[in-house]
């Protein structure tokens, strides 16, 4: 090598400083999320804990902050979870099976279906509320009832269940299917006895996360008419309110004390959601198969 | 399938199955379930279009998109949607200013700097942010961030675009971070190795190799974040106010399209009235805007998937 044609040098001090600064900025970016989350949780706990008592869970809402609770809202949220489970799970998993196992991806209608689901996942939740208002409440004449709210939440989280179920089904290796066919099983037998059992952990994880997303939703329920004063236990075909809606109502009241009750109700909601999230993550780690 | 020749013993007898109707029926049922999502989209479009068309019979497109006074429920009513678009744009701009740089920063850290074990714990923890309901973020913006801004000398109104936008920006961090990180992880290791072999530092590899290589995924995450910000309802409904006006001052109360829909859709607005149809006209505007952005985002994600996977 001719002298001086290539000068190799180690990194200068300035290079190191730049690198360290950059890494610091990256850590700062990450920290913004965590710090905000921490402050939010701390703030809610600090405000809400003194008001978090049995009365909150067992009393109906009231104009008197001393006795105001959220029982009807909590019950309605539980009812909606049950309805969601029996509606969104079968439809979502069936769609995922169709798309992954049956659909010919070259066909335009199957590609359109795929695109449609991806788009639906990003449609603003309030637009689903408009759909609920126009079709379920007015069109079908269901009225402003719990069932209408639950059905609109079903449509809202359906894309999430479909996408996560598809991923779980896709992760099952083809050799499992080929093995089944080789033994003379039909396509459905292979899906039902081989593919689905292997995909269940992934499907369950995705569905729990979708359910958690659904019961934290507020905006679509407002349009379906959940923003009413309900002091009695809900029924499926009756007027209702839900936990996030109840929180919104308490936040909107002018008296400062109701904001604290809202904080207490937020603790209840977050406790439910974080439990579901933790369960989903545990499920994923416990049963996830590495093929 | 041809019938195999069974020479010895003829037991077991293998034969080609006839058409299995049960199998076909199952496929049909599954396809019907898949149809639900198509019907949902069709339902949304029909639900929005019909009342919106009626609305635009009463209010000209020109008045809707060019005049600057939004007062549909007052006498005399006026229907200029610009103040709502302005409000949506203002909050979105603030949110985006937070989530774009810091979401990307978090993604680069997770993808290029964090050790596998650290990433495995940080990532789900970061996603917890995405699991917090928006009504809770709204509460936080109103009762914590607004007083905080006031205490450091920023004279915001009780309801203001700034705190709603800031909190929304933090809410969108996981959206940007996880999608961008996916795109960066898809960049082949060989590109990084090549750059390191040429003596690049980690900073150079991150900013000059990985980010440019993953740019379509990163832009997709940005577009999706904007779409989410435009469609977000509860934070702005709780913390940004109900005052439709044209302003670029983030300290003031504003009203977004979503907040208008939620605030108007609560009451028992009689069907068929102009008030009722207004909800759908604004809803249609919102849907068209977010739909366009979702399509752009989906296309971009496809592009990087096609290149690297």
Question: Describe it for me?
Answer:
By secondary structure, chain A is mainly α. Chain A folds into two domains: 13-51; 55-287, MetI-like fold (Orthogonal Bundle), CATH 1.10.3720.10. Chain A is 73% helix and 0% strand. Chain A has helices spanning 13-48, 54-58, 71-102, 108-120, 125-139, 146-170, 174-182, 187-215, 219-223, 243-252, 256-287. In chain A, helix 3 packs antiparallel against helix 8 (187-215) and helix 6 packs across helix 8 (187-215). In chain A, 46% of the residues are buried. The model of chain A has no long low-confidence stretch (mean pLDDT 89). With 309 residues, chain B is mainly α. Chain B has one domain: MetI-like (MetI-like fold). In chain B, 72% of the residues lie in helices and 1% in strands. Chain B is built from twelve helices and two strands; from the N terminus they run H-H-E-E-H-H-H-H-H-H-H-H-H-H. In chain B, strands 1-2 form a two-stranded antiparallel ribbon. In chain B, helix 3 (82-113) runs antiparallel to helix 9 (215-231), helix 6 (161-185) runs antiparallel to helix 9 and helix 9 (215-231) runs antiparallel to helix 12 (274-308). Chain B is flat.
List its traits:
heterodimer; A: 291 residues; mainly alpha; MetI-like fold; 2 domains; globular; B: 309 residues; two-stranded antiparallel ribbon; 2 strands
């Amino acid at each position: 090598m001719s002298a001086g044609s290539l000068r190799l040098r180690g990194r200068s001090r300035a290079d190191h400083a730049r690198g360290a600064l950059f890494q610091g900025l990256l850590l700062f970016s990450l920290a913004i999320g965590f710090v905000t989350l921490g402050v939010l949780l701390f703030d809610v706990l600090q405000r809400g804990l003194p008001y978090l008592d049995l009365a909150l869970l067992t009393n109906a809402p009231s104009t008197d902050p001393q006795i105001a609770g959220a029982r009807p809202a909590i019950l309605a949220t539980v009812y909606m979870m049950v309805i969601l489970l029996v509606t969104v799970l079968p439809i979502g998993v069936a769609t995922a099976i169709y798309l992954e196992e049956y659909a010919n991806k070259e066909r335009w209608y199957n590609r359109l279906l795929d695109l449609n689901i991806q788009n639906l996942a990003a449609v603003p939740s309030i637009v689903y509320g408009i759909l609920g208002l126009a079709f379920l409440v007015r069109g079908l004449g269901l009225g402003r009832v719990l069932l209408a709210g639950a059905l609109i939440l079903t449509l809202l989280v359906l894309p999430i269940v479909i996408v996560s179920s598809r991923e779980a089904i896709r992760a099952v290796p083809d050799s499992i299917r080929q093995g089944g066919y080789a033994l003379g099983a039909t396509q459905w037998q292979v899906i039902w006895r081989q593919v689905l059992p292997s995909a269940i952990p992934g499907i369950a994880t995705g569905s729990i996360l979708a359910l958690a997303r659904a019961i934290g939703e507020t905006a679509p329920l407002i349009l379906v008419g959940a923003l009413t004063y309900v002091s009695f236990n809900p029924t499926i075909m009756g007027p209702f309110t839900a936990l996030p809606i109840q929180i919104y109502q308490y936040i909107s009241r002018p008296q400062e004390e109701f904001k604290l009750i809202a904080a207490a109700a937020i603790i209840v909601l977050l406790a439910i959601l974080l439990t579901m999230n933790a369960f989903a993550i545990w499920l994923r780690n416990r049963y996830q198969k590495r093929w | 399938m041809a019938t195999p020749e069974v020479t010895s013993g003829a037991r077991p007898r293998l034969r080609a199955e006839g058409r299995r109707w049960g199998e076909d029926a199952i496929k049909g049922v599954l396809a019907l379930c898949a149809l639900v999502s198509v019907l949902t989209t069709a339902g949304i479009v029909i639900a929005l279009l019909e009342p919106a068309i009626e609305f635009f019979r009463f209010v000209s497109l020109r008045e809707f998109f060019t005049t600057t006074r939004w007062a549909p429920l007052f006498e005399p009513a006026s229907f200029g949607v610009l103040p709502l678009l302005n409000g949506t744009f203002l909050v979105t701009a603030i949110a985006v200013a937070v989530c774009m740089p810091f979401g990307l920063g978090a993604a680069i850290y997770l993808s290029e700097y964090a050790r596998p074990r650290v990433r495995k714990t940080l990532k789900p923890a970061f996603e917890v942010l995405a699991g917090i309901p928006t009504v809770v973020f709204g509460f936080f913006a109103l009762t914590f961030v607004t007083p905080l801004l006031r205490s450091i000398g920023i004279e915001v109104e009780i309801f203001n675009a700034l705190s709603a936008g800031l909190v929304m920006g933090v809410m969108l961090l996981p959206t940007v971070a996880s999608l961008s990180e996916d795109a960066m992880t898809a960049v082949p290791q060989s590109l990084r190795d090549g750059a390191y072999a040429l003596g690049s530092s980690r900073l150079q590899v991150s900013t000059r190799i990985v980010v440019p290589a993953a740019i379509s995924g990163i832009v997709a995450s940005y577009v999706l974040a904007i779409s989410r910000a435009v469609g977000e309802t509860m934070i702005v409904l709780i913390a940004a106010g109900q005052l439709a006006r044209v302003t670029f001052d983030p300290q003031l109360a504003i009203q977004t399209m979503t907040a208008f829909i939620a605030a108007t859709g609560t009451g028992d607005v009689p069907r068929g009235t102009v008030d009722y149809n207004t909800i759908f006209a604004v809803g249609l505007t919102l849907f068209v805007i977010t739909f366009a952005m979702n399509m752009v985002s989906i296309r971009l994600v496809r592009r990087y998937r096609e290149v690297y996977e």
